[in-house]
Amino acid sequence: MFELFKTIANAGKSTSKYPFAPYEVAPDFRGKPEYTPEQCIACAACTKACPANALVMTTDAESGARQWQLSLARCIYCGRCEEVCPTKAITLSKEFELAVGQKKDLYQRAVFTLQQCNQCGTPYAPTKAVQYAYDLLLAAGEDKTELERTRSVIEMCPECRRKRNMLGSSNVLIGSLAKERNA
C-alpha cells in the first residue's frame, strides 16, 4: 500500500490548473480568426474558400456598399481564409475561449464602399480593391505617367471597359464590313 502512494506521489500532476492558470496551446494551434478591416480589400477570396460558409460577403449596388461578415458560431477553424487572403487581413489567433453572453456577439462585420465607374456611374468593385490593383502595378515597376494615363481604364466597370475596347479596335470594321455584305 505504501508503494502505491509512493508511485502516485512520483507521478506528478496529471491535470492542468486551467481555468485558474492560463492554458498553453501548441504553436500550430488554430484559434479564433482575427480580422483587420483596415487591411482588407473586400476581394471575397475568403468567402469562396470557407467550407463552412462562416464568411459571407453581400453587395448592395443601390447604396454602393459591400458588407463582410464572419460568424464564429459557424467557423470550423480550418484556416482556409488565412491561406487565401492576399493582404493577410485574416489570421488565426491562439484564442480559444469564445463564450459570449449574446448570440450577436459571435458576428464580426465590416462595410466597404464600392468604386463607381467613371463612365456610367454604376458601382462595380470595392474602392480598396481598385486601389490595391493600382498599387500592385506601381510596385511591379510600371511607369507612373503611363499608369496615370491608364487609371481611367482601371476605374471603369467591366461593361464600359469592354465597350471601350470594342470601339477602339478593328473589330468595329469587321462588323461594318459584314453589314455591308448583307445589304
UniProtKB/TrEMBL annotation:
<keyword id="KW-0408">Iron</keyword>
<keyword id="KW-0677">Repeat</keyword>
<dbReference type="GO" id="GO:0051539">
    <property type="term" value="F:4 iron, 4 sulfur cluster binding"/>
</dbReference>
<dbReference type="Pfam" id="PF12838">
    <property type="entry name" value="Fer4_7"/>
</dbReference>
<dbReference type="GO" id="GO:0016020">
    <property type="term" value="C:membrane"/>
</dbReference>
<feature type="domain" description="4Fe-4S ferredoxin-type">
    <location>
        <begin position="66"/>
        <end position="95"/>
    </location>
</feature>
<dbReference type="InterPro" id="IPR010226">
    <property type="entry name" value="NADH_quinone_OxRdtase_chainI"/>
</dbReference>
<keyword id="KW-0411">Iron-sulfur</keyword>
<dbReference type="InterPro" id="IPR017896">
    <property type="entry name" value="4Fe4S_Fe-S-bd"/>
</dbReference>
<dbReference type="GO" id="GO:0046872">
    <property type="term" value="F:metal ion binding"/>
</dbReference>
<keyword id="KW-0004">4Fe-4S</keyword>
<dbReference type="GO" id="GO:0009060">
    <property type="term" value="P:aerobic respiration"/>
</dbReference>
<dbReference type="GO" id="GO:0003954">
    <property type="term" value="F:NADH dehydrogenase activity"/>
</dbReference>
<protein>
    <submittedName>
        <fullName>4Fe-4S dicluster domain-containing protein</fullName>
    </submittedName>
</protein>
<keyword id="KW-0479">Metal-binding</keyword>
<dbReference type="InterPro" id="IPR017900">
    <property type="entry name" value="4Fe4S_Fe_S_CS"/>
</dbReference>
<feature type="domain" description="4Fe-4S ferredoxin-type">
    <location>
        <begin position="31"/>
        <end position="60"/>
    </location>
</feature>
